[in-house]
């Protein structure tokens, strides 16, 4: 199945450790969404926003990888699954259940996401914009 990563799962080494069957396919943009950080975990989330994009990584994952991600993402308590279509193919990602207000990510978490942006060759300006709470 196809999975869209936009937070710490962009970090290739971490993603491979978490989901051994995962294969990074390419970078893509999720349109009409923006990246933010929230919850007591100060983790990445996406929310709808017209004319905005969230860059991320498209991965091929197995059923067992999906089960591991469900545990890591605390599905369905913290995150729920969100599906969208990319060139006719169904893609799964996670979005937070409770849309609390913006919270600065921890430095450690932010650095993992930043490393993931490098790994996937994403434009860092979107990450910096999210950090500014915009």
Uncertain runs: none
N-to-C span: 32 Å
Q: Tell me, rounded to a whole number, the average pLDDT.
A: 97
Q: Can you tell me the number of structural domains?
A: 1
CATH topology: Hypothetical upf0131 protein ytfp
Major sheet attributes: 5 strands, mixed
* Overall CATH architecture: Roll
What's the tally of helices?
Answer: 4
State which percent range the strand residues make up.
35-45%
Question: What is the CATH level 1 assignment?
Answer: Alpha Beta
H/E topology pattern: EHEEHEEHH
Shape: globular
**How many DSSP-defined strands?**
5
What is the spatial order of strands in the main beta sheet? 2-3-1-5-4
Measured on Cα atoms, how large is the radius of gyration?
13 Å
Helix coverage percent of residues?
25-40%
How would you describe the overall organization of this protein?
The protein has 134 residues and is an alpha+beta fold. The protein has one domain (2-131): Hypothetical upf0131 protein ytfp, CATH 3.10.490.10. 28% of the residues lie in helices and 40% in strands. The chain is built from four helices and five strands, in the order E-H-E-E-H-E-E-H-H. Strand 2 (23-38) and strand 3 form a beta hairpin.
Provide a brief overview of the structure.
By secondary structure, this protein is an alpha+beta fold. It has one domain: Roll (Hypothetical upf0131 protein ytfp). 28% of the residues lie in helices and 40% in strands.
Note the topology.
Blueprint: E1 2-5, H1 12-18, E2 23-38, E3 43-60, H2 63-72, E4 79-86, E5 89-96, H3 107-119, H4 124-131
């Amino acid at each position: 199945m196809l999975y869209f990563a936009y937070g710490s799962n962009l970090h290739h080494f971490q993603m491979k450790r978490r989901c051994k069957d995962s294969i990074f396919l390419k970078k893509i943009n999720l349109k009409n969404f923006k990246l933010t950080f929230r919850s007591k975990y100060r983790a990445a989330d996406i929310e709808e926003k017209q004319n905005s994009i969230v860059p991320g990584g498209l991965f091929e994952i197995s059923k067992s990888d999906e089960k591991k991600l469900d545990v890591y993402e605390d599905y369905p308590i913290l995150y729920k699954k969100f599906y969208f279509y990319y060139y006719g193919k169904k893609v799964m990602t996670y979005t937070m259940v409770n849309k609390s207000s913006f919270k600065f990510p921890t430095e450690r978490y932010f650095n993992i996401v930043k490393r993931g942006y490098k790994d996937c060759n994403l434009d860092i300006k979107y990450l910096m914009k999210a950090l500014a709470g915009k």
